[in-house]
Amino acid sequence: MEEAHLDTPIGSCRLLACEAGLCSIAFLDEDEPQSLSSGHCANPHLEQAIEQLSAYFAGQLTKFEVQLAPEGTAFQKRVWQRLSAIPFGVTKSYGQIAREIGQPNASRAVGGANNRNPIPVIVPCHRVIGSGNTLVGFGCGLWRKQWMLEHEGIALQLG
Protein backbone atom coordinates (compact mmCIF):
# COMPACT_ATOMS: atom_id res chain seq x y z
CA MET A 1 0.00 0.00 0.00
CA GLU A 2 1.38 3.40 -0.95
CA GLU A 3 0.23 6.75 0.43
CA ALA A 4 0.17 10.25 -0.98
CA HIS A 5 -1.29 13.56 0.16
CA LEU A 6 -3.03 16.28 -1.80
CA ASP A 7 -4.09 19.78 -0.83
CA THR A 8 -7.50 20.67 -2.26
CA PRO A 9 -9.84 23.66 -1.90
CA ILE A 10 -11.81 21.59 0.65
CA GLY A 11 -8.86 20.45 2.72
CA SER A 12 -5.92 18.10 2.64
CA CYS A 13 -6.56 14.48 1.88
CA ARG A 14 -4.68 11.22 2.17
CA LEU A 15 -4.84 8.80 -0.76
CA LEU A 16 -4.00 5.11 -0.46
CA ALA A 17 -3.47 2.74 -3.37
CA CYS A 18 -2.34 -0.83 -3.90
CA GLU A 19 -1.33 -2.63 -7.07
CA ALA A 20 -5.00 -3.21 -7.97
CA GLY A 21 -5.99 0.47 -7.81
CA LEU A 22 -6.94 3.39 -5.60
CA CYS A 23 -8.22 2.11 -2.23
CA SER A 24 -9.20 5.23 -0.31
CA ILE A 25 -9.34 8.99 -0.05
CA ALA A 26 -9.65 10.45 3.44
CA PHE A 27 -9.96 14.14 4.20
CA LEU A 28 -7.70 15.10 7.08
CA ASP A 29 -9.00 17.10 9.99
CA GLU A 30 -6.87 20.06 11.01
CA ASP A 31 -5.73 18.29 14.17
CA GLU A 32 -4.44 15.21 12.30
CA PRO A 33 -0.73 15.00 11.52
CA GLN A 34 -0.13 15.91 7.90
CA SER A 35 3.12 14.93 6.29
CA LEU A 36 2.27 16.36 2.91
CA SER A 37 4.35 14.61 0.31
CA SER A 38 2.67 15.24 -3.01
CA GLY A 39 5.77 14.55 -5.08
CA HIS A 40 6.34 11.67 -7.48
CA CYS A 41 4.52 8.43 -6.61
CA ALA A 42 5.76 4.99 -7.50
CA ASN A 43 2.17 3.74 -7.69
CA PRO A 44 0.63 4.74 -11.05
CA HIS A 45 -2.90 4.69 -9.57
CA LEU A 46 -1.90 7.32 -7.00
CA GLU A 47 -0.26 9.47 -9.62
CA GLN A 48 -3.32 9.28 -11.87
CA ALA A 49 -5.68 10.02 -8.96
CA ILE A 50 -3.68 13.09 -7.91
CA GLU A 51 -3.57 14.36 -11.49
CA GLN A 52 -7.31 13.85 -12.01
CA LEU A 53 -8.37 15.22 -8.61
CA SER A 54 -6.27 18.31 -9.22
CA ALA A 55 -7.97 18.79 -12.60
CA TYR A 56 -11.43 18.23 -11.03
CA PHE A 57 -10.84 20.87 -8.36
CA ALA A 58 -9.46 23.26 -11.00
CA GLY A 59 -12.69 22.88 -12.98
CA GLN A 60 -10.98 21.03 -15.84
CA LEU A 61 -12.30 17.47 -15.35
CA THR A 62 -15.84 16.12 -15.11
CA LYS A 63 -15.24 12.36 -15.32
CA PHE A 64 -12.69 10.27 -13.45
CA GLU A 65 -10.89 7.34 -15.03
CA VAL A 66 -8.87 5.88 -12.18
CA GLN A 67 -8.64 2.16 -11.46
CA LEU A 68 -10.40 1.61 -8.11
CA ALA A 69 -9.93 -1.11 -5.50
CA PRO A 70 -12.32 -0.30 -2.63
CA GLU A 71 -12.86 -2.76 0.22
CA GLY A 72 -16.49 -3.48 1.05
CA THR A 73 -19.38 -5.91 0.98
CA ALA A 74 -20.95 -7.04 -2.28
CA PHE A 75 -23.93 -4.74 -1.61
CA GLN A 76 -21.69 -1.74 -0.89
CA LYS A 77 -19.72 -2.36 -4.07
CA ARG A 78 -22.95 -2.47 -6.10
CA VAL A 79 -24.01 0.87 -4.62
CA TRP A 80 -20.57 2.41 -5.23
CA GLN A 81 -20.60 1.18 -8.82
CA ARG A 82 -24.00 2.83 -9.30
CA LEU A 83 -22.75 6.05 -7.70
CA SER A 84 -19.85 6.09 -10.15
CA ALA A 85 -22.38 6.26 -12.99
CA ILE A 86 -23.93 9.53 -11.74
CA PRO A 87 -22.62 12.19 -14.13
CA PHE A 88 -20.97 15.46 -13.13
CA GLY A 89 -23.60 18.08 -12.30
CA VAL A 90 -26.39 15.54 -11.67
CA THR A 91 -27.87 14.41 -8.36
CA LYS A 92 -29.93 11.38 -7.39
CA SER A 93 -31.80 10.49 -4.23
CA TYR A 94 -31.11 7.49 -2.03
CA GLY A 95 -34.44 6.05 -3.21
CA GLN A 96 -33.48 6.43 -6.87
CA ILE A 97 -30.21 4.56 -6.28
CA ALA A 98 -32.09 1.81 -4.40
CA ARG A 99 -34.47 1.37 -7.35
CA GLU A 100 -31.60 1.42 -9.86
CA ILE A 101 -29.84 -1.46 -8.10
CA GLY A 102 -33.09 -3.44 -8.03
CA GLN A 103 -33.80 -3.01 -4.30
CA PRO A 104 -36.50 -0.33 -4.14
CA ASN A 105 -36.99 -0.70 -0.37
CA ALA A 106 -33.30 -0.35 0.47
CA SER A 107 -32.98 3.45 0.71
CA ARG A 108 -31.53 3.27 4.23
CA ALA A 109 -29.07 0.55 3.24
CA VAL A 110 -28.02 2.67 0.26
CA GLY A 111 -27.46 5.54 2.69
CA GLY A 112 -25.28 3.28 4.85
CA ALA A 113 -23.22 2.15 1.86
CA ASN A 114 -22.94 5.75 0.70
CA ASN A 115 -21.64 6.74 4.14
CA ARG A 116 -19.00 3.98 4.02
CA ASN A 117 -17.71 4.92 0.56
CA PRO A 118 -13.91 4.83 0.96
CA ILE A 119 -13.24 6.86 -2.21
CA PRO A 120 -15.28 10.09 -1.97
CA VAL A 121 -15.13 12.60 -4.83
CA ILE A 122 -14.06 9.97 -7.38
CA VAL A 123 -16.95 7.69 -6.34
CA PRO A 124 -19.32 10.67 -6.16
CA CYS A 125 -21.34 10.00 -3.02
CA HIS A 126 -21.71 13.79 -2.73
CA ARG A 127 -24.15 13.60 -5.67
CA VAL A 128 -26.67 11.62 -3.59
CA ILE A 129 -29.21 13.86 -1.89
CA GLY A 130 -32.30 13.58 0.26
CA SER A 131 -35.80 13.35 -1.10
CA GLY A 132 -37.17 16.76 -1.90
CA ASN A 133 -33.81 17.92 -3.28
CA THR A 134 -32.28 18.51 0.15
CA LEU A 135 -28.65 18.50 1.15
CA VAL A 136 -28.26 15.76 3.75
CA GLY A 137 -25.50 13.56 5.15
CA PHE A 138 -21.87 13.42 4.14
CA GLY A 139 -19.22 11.63 6.19
CA CYS A 140 -16.51 14.10 5.12
CA GLY A 141 -18.49 17.13 6.31
CA LEU A 142 -21.66 18.58 4.85
CA TRP A 143 -19.82 21.78 3.91
CA ARG A 144 -17.54 19.73 1.61
CA LYS A 145 -20.55 18.14 -0.05
CA GLN A 146 -22.11 21.56 -0.57
CA TRP A 147 -18.85 22.93 -2.00
CA MET A 148 -18.51 20.07 -4.51
CA LEU A 149 -22.14 20.31 -5.61
CA GLU A 150 -21.82 24.07 -6.11
CA HIS A 151 -18.54 23.44 -7.97
CA GLU A 152 -20.59 21.20 -10.27
CA GLY A 153 -23.30 23.86 -10.72
CA ILE A 154 -25.85 22.48 -8.23
CA ALA A 155 -27.27 24.64 -5.43
CA LEU A 156 -29.30 22.88 -2.71
CA GLN A 157 -30.79 23.81 0.63
CA LEU A 158 -29.82 22.04 3.84
CA GLY A 159 -32.41 19.36 4.70
Structure notes:
The protein is globular. The protein starts with a strand and ends with a strand. The relative contact order is 0.15. It has helices at 44-57, 74-83, 94-100, 107-115, 142-151, and strands spanning 2-8, 11-18, 21-27, 92-93, 128-129, 134-135, 157-158. The chain is built from five helices and seven strands. β2 (11-18) and β3 form a beta hairpin. It has 159 residues and is α/β, with parallel strands linked by helices. The strands form three sheets. The chain has a three-stranded antiparallel β-sheet with strand order 1-2-3, covered by helices on one side.
Beta-strand portion reads 15-25%
Strand order of the largest sheet: 1-2-3
The computed structural class is: alpha/beta
Order of helices and strands: EEEHHEHHEEHE
Average of the residue pLDDT scores: 91
Radius of gyration: 15 Å
Q: Outline the biggest β-sheet.
A: 3 strands, antiparallel
Number of strands: 7
User: In DSSP terms, counting alpha (H) and pi (I) runs of 4 or more, how many helices?
Assistant: 5
Helix content: 25-40%
Shape: globular
Q: Quaternary arrangement of the chains shown?
A: single chain
Contiguous low-pLDDT stretches (5 residues minimum) are: 31-38
- Distance, first to last CA: 38 Å
